[in-house]
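As described in the Methods, two query proteins were run sequentially through the folding procedure within a single session, without resetting any intermediate state between them. The first query and its resulting C-alpha cells are shown here.
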Amino acid sequence: MGVVMIKCPGTGQDIPTGMKADRERFRCSPVFFARTFCSICQADHEWFAREAWVHEPEEKWRMHEAAFALQSAQSRRAAQSVNGPVAVGRSLPASSCAAALRAHW
C-alpha cells in the first residue's frame, strides 16, 4: 500500500493526493479524473489517473523484510530447541517470500 502522488503544476514538486492504493491495482484501474488540494501553492489541482503514481517508500519494505527475517530466525531457533537442528535451505524462493510478505503487510 502506498500514497497516490501527483506533481504540482506550479512548482513541479511531488504532492500526495490523500488517496492510498496498491501500486499494481492503481496501474490497472480505469481512467478517472480527480482534484487534489495542494498545500504548496494553496490551490486545487485537477488530474487524471495516468498522471499519478503510487509512492511506496523503500524503507518500509526494508523494515518489513528485516522483521520477516527476524521472525524466520526466531522460528528456526524455536524449532531447533524442540526438534534438534533444522536443515537450512528449505526456505521458500525469494519471490515467494516477497509475495507472502506483501500479502501479510
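Immediately afterward, the second query was submitted; its sequence and C-alpha cells are:
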Amino acid sequence: MTNLPLQPTFNNTDVDLTTDTAWNWVLDVSKPPAFTQVGKPDSKLPFGHKYPSTIKVTARSLSSWNVTKQAADEPETSPVTCDSKCGAATELTLVPYGATNLRISAYPWTKSGAKDVN
C-alpha cells in the first residue's frame, strides 16, 4: 500500500492498493454458483474474516482486462467469447462486497461450458 500525495482541493490522501493475486476474472455462468450461509454477521465487526456468506463460482482469468491509471478498465461486454484470452477454469470463492480492501462489484460473464475446474 502506497500513500499518494495530499490533494489540496479536498485535503485528503488517496491510497494506491495493489495486489499480487489475479483479480481479472470472467465468471462462467454455464455452471450454477453455490451459495453458503456461514452464520450471522457479527454486529461489532460486520466484515472481518468471518464472512456471513460466500458464493463459489467457476471463473477463468481474462488477460484482456487490464489496469489503466491505477484502476481496472471497463471489462469486456458480456457474454465474453473465451478463446485464447481466457485461462483454465478455476473455482473462486466470492465474499461480501466491502469485506476486502480491493473490491469488484461486477464481473463479466461467459457461457464457455467449463468442465475442467481446478
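Confidence is low (pLDDT under 50) at residues 114-118. We note this only descriptively and draw no conclusion about the first query from it.
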